[in-house]
Amino acid sequence: MRMKSETFTCLANFCAMVKNQFNRTIKHVRTDNGQEFLSNNIQKKFHDHGILHKCTCVDTPQQNGIAKRKHCHLFNVARCLRFQANLPISFWGECILTAPYLINHTPSPHLNHKSPYELLFQKQPSYSHLRVFGCLCYAQTTRKNCDKVSPRALRCVFLGYPIHHKAYRVYDLEYKNFFISRDVTFEENIFPYHLMTPDPTPSPVLPLPIPEIPSNIVSAQPTTSPPFPSSHEPSSTSSTPPLPTRPK
User: In whole angstroms, what is the distance from residue 197 CA to residue 112 CA?
Assistant: First the structure.
């Protein structure tokens, strides 16, 4: 969802998916006081399907504590994925999309050591396809304009599992684009962004802050003459003119 105006469409699609895939109906919806949940279209949707809409009080996020804690859980996992692979901040979206996929496949002691996937689908999930997030991988290329001596794989970074494909989502390090591939070879002990160090940029050298001496202090300081006059300067106490210097 890119804009809040798409809330009604996303909610209608979610209700239809739950009804069709799991043969369940939504009975309660708890939200904050956002105007996107109080529009006429959404309120009519709740009324037509007998859904009770409950709103939290203003400035009382603890009334929606389950959603807040799950939101915090998602970001904790996403941060761990990004820090482990040393990914740039521009890949934060891939970390967020991968976090719920891993959480749903992870057994939890709060669920009698079962995963959310197992409770939802009543079967054990498969773990054979899981790979280390952010590792180096080589995806088979499908370019048709390659000659016989061109490489048959692209050097990529593994960045998640697409929803609508039984494949892997990777990022091409050479051409800087995302694509989905099924034929991928993984190097799970190598993280490309750990090996890439940013170019050192010289830091600006700032001048030392030299405080100005007040004029009253300068005038109060005694002026002392050097003990011996310089050979290149005439002495103020001597009346003898300086000797002329021989030209070189």
Answer: 44
Answer whether 0.85 is exceeded by the pTM: no
What backbone phi and psi angles, to 5 degrees, belong to 139?
Answer: -100, 135
Whether residue 99 contacts residue 106, with contact meaning beta carbons closer than 8 Å, is answered with no
Can you tell me the distance from the alpha carbon of 213 to that of 194, in angstroms, rounded to the nearest whole number?
51
For the chain of 248 residues, list the mean pLDDT of each consecutive stretch of 10.
88 93 91 88 92 90 86 95 95 95 94 94 94 95 72 92 95 94 95 73 52 56 52 51 57
* Residue 172, number of CB atoms within 10 A of its CB: 16
Distance CA 83, CA 80 (A): 5
82: left (phi > 0), else alpha (psi -120 to 50), else beta? Answer: alpha
d(CA 201, CA 112): 53
Phi–psi pair at 156, nearest 5 degrees: -135, 175
